[in-house]
Design brief:
single chain; 443 residues; 6-stranded parallel beta sheet; 15 helices; 14 strands; binds uridine-5'-diphosphate-glucuronic acid
């Protein structure tokens, strides 16, 4: 099939490459000419495992193309996928202006049979508004008779940055939302070659499924963080509890890692948006308010522990490991690690930070008294404490002998329970995780 993908961010590029690899011809459109120029040369504009190789392969095979001109390519498209950004507005709602602009641009151009899919995560009801906007623009362009040839399909995205390509090719399920059999069959053809259960449903259900999935995952995280806080108080170990709980297949072992909470551009935004969507219909969703509140106080609880042990942060030198919102990505949007760096700096600490991939992107958000270091060990020079705030697996491989030699006071506060089993106390550190009373005893 001929696919036009509008937007070349994580979702647009990763799924565009995925569809190309499935055998479709994909044209990616972006208004940012510098991004398009790089992509044409085979250079991804962000770090994502698997993307550079697939990009090279698909460019060589002639199955993916890049352009800034929607007008030049839309006539051939059987499917148009909108994957532009929906950044949060100051009031927490998603800014849909980019999505709606694409809808209007498309409407001015479309005249033929085409299914339009919104991949950007959008509030329930947005797909229908997008269709209305397309059809209105078609009428204004004098193509009234063709409005029924454009149909809308909702295929929510479940890709995780860091695993985007893997998630594209091995999804747990594919959610297909549409109004009619003809659209469902186009969506089926689009996903041919992916071995995953497909679930057909209404457009509104598909839109809500995306929010519900992210909200339930976020709820699991806030829940285990509450258990960790209780574990801290009663002398239990949250990792042991999570293991015991997760072995019940009704509960499952995933997303039970306690720590400083969830960040990123998805969970915080989506949980708040779902809460708000319910609110606009007059329904107060108490569970989601609690999930949000637990998440926002978790990082402060962590910081208070350190602050108490150090007798305040003023004039203290803090090594900070991690700036990305999670391990495996250079994405710093909604990163709790950045928030922690800002809070530390605001309380008078000198922060020495290191991240394997995210330092370039982090720079813009960091105040002056946060210095970026070239290695994890360098960040520990003269430090009064080391705070681990992003779950990068490579932090486990660092030489802790070298870390101890560099630190003034060998204290480690592990906000991700990443190093709990490394027996750091035996290596001369004072080690504290989140809800972990027996470090080293768990594998
Ligand atoms: C999430 C979902 O997992 C994807 O399925 C979804 O497609 C994506 O949002 C989206 O809506 O586009 P993502 O935000 O990339 O993906 O990251 P996750 O791996 O889910 O982690 C989110 C946050 O939760 C991170 O800050 C991570 O550190 C934290 N987390 C995760 C925990 O604190 N504990 C856990 O057990 C798991």
């Amino acid at each position: 099939m001929n696919i036009v993908m509008v937007g070349t961010g994580y979702v647009g590029l990763a799924s565009g490459l995925g569809f190309a690899k499935l055998g479709h011809r994909v044209v990616c459109v972006d208004i940012d000419a510098s991004k398009i120029a790089k992509l044409e040369l085979g250079e991804p504009t962000f770090f994502e495992p698997g993307v550079p190789e697939t990009l090279k392969e698909m460019l060589e095979a002639g199955r993916i193309m890049f352009t800034t001109s929607l007008k030049d390519v839309v006539d051939e498209a059987q499917v148009v996928i909108i994957a532009v950004g929906t950044p949060p507005l100051p009031n927490g709602q998603a800014d849909l202006s980019f999505v709606y602009k694409v809808a209007e641009d498309l409407g001015a151009l479309l005249r033929h049979d085409c299914v339009v899919i919104v991949k950007s995560t959008v509030p329930v009801g947005t797909n229908r508004i997008v269709l209305e906007k397309i059809q209105r623009a078609m009428q204004e362009a004098g193509h009234d008779e063709a409005t029924s040839r454009v149909r809308i399909g909702s295929v929510p995205e479940f890709l995780r940055p860091g695993y985007a390509m893997e998630d594209f090719f091995h999804p747990a399920r594919i959610i297909l939302g549409a109004d009619d059999e003809e659209t469902f069959s186009v969506l089926d053809r689009l996903h041919a070659g992916l071995e995953a259960p497909r679930v057909r449903m209404s457009i509104e259900s598909a839109e809500l499924t995306k929010y519900a999935a992210n909200a339930l995952l976020a709820t699991k995280i806030s829940f285990i963080n509450e258990i960790a806080n209780i574990a801290d108080e009663v002398g239990a170990d949250v990792r042991e509890v999570a293991q015991g709980v997760g072995m019940d297949p009704r509960l499952g072992p995933h997303f039970l890692n306690a720590g400083i909470g969830f960040g990123g551009m998805c969970f915080p935004k989506d949980v708040s948006a779902l809460h708000q969507i319910a609110g606009t219909k007059g329904y107060e969703c108490k569970l989601l308010s609690a999930v949000i509140e637990v998440n926002s106080r978790q990082r402060e609880r962590f910081l208070r522990k350190v602050e108490h042990d150090l007798n305040g942060f003023k004039g203290k030198r803090i090594a900070l490991w991690g700036l990305a919102f999670k391990g495996g990505t250079d994405d710093v949007r909604g990163s709790i690690s950045i928030d922690i760096a800002q809070r530390l700096a605001g309380r008078g600490a000198d922060v020495y930070a290191f991240d394997p991939k995210a330092m370039d992107r982090a720079k813009a958000y960091l105040p002056e008294n946060v210095k970026l270091c070239s290695t994890a060990v360098d960040a520990c020079e003269g430090a009064d404490a080391l705070l681990v705030v992003t779950e990068w697996p490579e932090f486990r491989e660092v030489s802790f002998e070298a870390v101890r030699e560099r630190m003034i006071d060998p204290r480690i506060y592990d906000g991700r329970n990443l190093l709990t089993d490394l027996e750091l106390e035996k290596k001369g550190f004072s080690y504290k995780g989140v809800g972990v009373c027996r470090p080293g005893r768990h594998s």
